[in-house]
Fe2OG dioxygenase domain-containing protein (Lactuca saligna), 396 residues
Amino acid sequence: MVMFQEMSPRDDKSESIKGQEHNKGVKHLCEMGITKVPKKYILPTLERPDNSITTELHDVTNLQLPVIDFAELHGANHEQVITSLAHACQNYGFFQVINHGISSNVIDEMIDVGRRFFELPLKEREKYMSTDVHSLVRYGTSFNQMKDGVLCWRDFLKLVCTTEAHSQWPSSPLDFREMGVEYARETKMLFQSLMEAILESLGLEEKNTHNKTPKTHQESGNNKHSSKREENYDNIIKDIGDGSQLMVVNCYPPCPEPELTFGMPPHSDYGFLTLLLQDEVEGLQILHKDHWVTIKPRPQSFVVNIGDHLEILSNGRYKSVMHRVLANSKKSRISVASLHSLAFTAVIRPWPMLINDENPKRYKDTDFADFVQYITTCDSKHKNFLESRKLTHIYT
Ligand SMILES: O=C(O)CCC(=O)C(=O)O
Ligand SMILES: [Fe+2]
C-alpha cells in the first residue's frame, strides 16, 4: 500500500475538485485556480524527484551532451562524425543535433503554435480528447492515463503523422495543421538521415550491400511469424522511409508543488529515435551513469534519444535511456517530441548481422500491437516494456 508522509490537510480547491475533473488535464486544474497539488498527483516520498537515490551526488549535473554537427556529417569529416555518433549512442543514448538544416522559423513556429493550442479554451481542446490509443489525434493528460497509479503534471496532444491523419488534426489555431505538417515532414527527413548514419555507425552499411533491389512488402511478407523479408541494408532503409511517425506536443503548466510530482515519470521511448524540441524552460533529465542529469535547452537544436526499437535492432549495442521531466512552479513549458519507427504493422527484430556466438539474440521479435497490448495492461514506466521483450536466457 502507498503511504504518504504528508498528512497535513490539503485544504484548498485542490481537494474539492470532484469526480473526473482531473481527466480534463492539469491545465484545466490550474485554470480552476488550485494552489496545491491534488492527492492523485502526489508521489510516495521515496519516488519524488529529490528523493530518488540517483540525485544524491551532484558532480555530473552539468554534463554536456555530445553534440552532433549534422552539416559535418555530409562533409569532409564524415568518418569522424560517425565515430562521435557511435560513441554518443553507446555511452549516452542521447545527443544534441545542431546545424540540422531545419529553419529557425519552422522550429519557433512549431513551439509557438503548440503553445497556442494549449491556450485555447478547454471546449476547443477537448474535442480531441480520447483514451483510445489507436486514435489518429489524441488530447490527454498524465503519462499512461488509464494505468497511472499516480498522475503526472503534463497534458499532451498526440498526432499520428500520415496524410490520412492530417485532416483530423486540430483546425484551431488556424495555422496549426500547416505548421504541424511542415514540421513533421522536416523532422522525418532529419530522422531518416540520422538513422542512415546510425546504421553506418553499427557497421551495417558496408556488410549489407550485396542485394541492391529492395523488395516490396507483398513480395517479402511482413508478418512476425512468417516473414521471409530479406534483412539487408536497402530494405531497412526503405522500411525506415515508410515508417511510422508520432508527434507529441507536451504542455507542462506551472505546478504549485513541483517537489511532489513529475511532469513526466522515468520512461524510455518506444521507437527507433525521438527528436525532441524543447522551449527555453528547463525540465528534461536523463539517467546517465545512475545520476539524473538536466539537459539544458539549447536554442535551435534537437535532443535526440535512442528508443526501445533501436535497442532491439542493435541487439543491445545501443540502449534506450530513461528520461523524465521535472515540473516547476514558475513557468509553463512546451516540448514537441517526434517518435519514429518502422510502420505500425512491421516487426522489429535484432539485426541478424549483430547476432553471433558472443552476442546471441537478446530480444524477442516485437511489433506495435505488442506495445499497445503492454501499455493497456501493464505499467509502462521505466523500461518495463523493453524488459518484457528480453529473452530470458540472456542475463546481461
Ligand atoms: O518534454 C520533454 O522534455 C520530454 C518528453 C518526452 O520524454 C516524451 O514525450 O516522450
Ligand atoms: Fe520520452
Observations:
- The two ends are 32 Å apart (CA to CA).
- The pocket of fe (ii) ion (ligand 2) is lined by residues 267, 269, 274, 323 (CB under 6 Å).
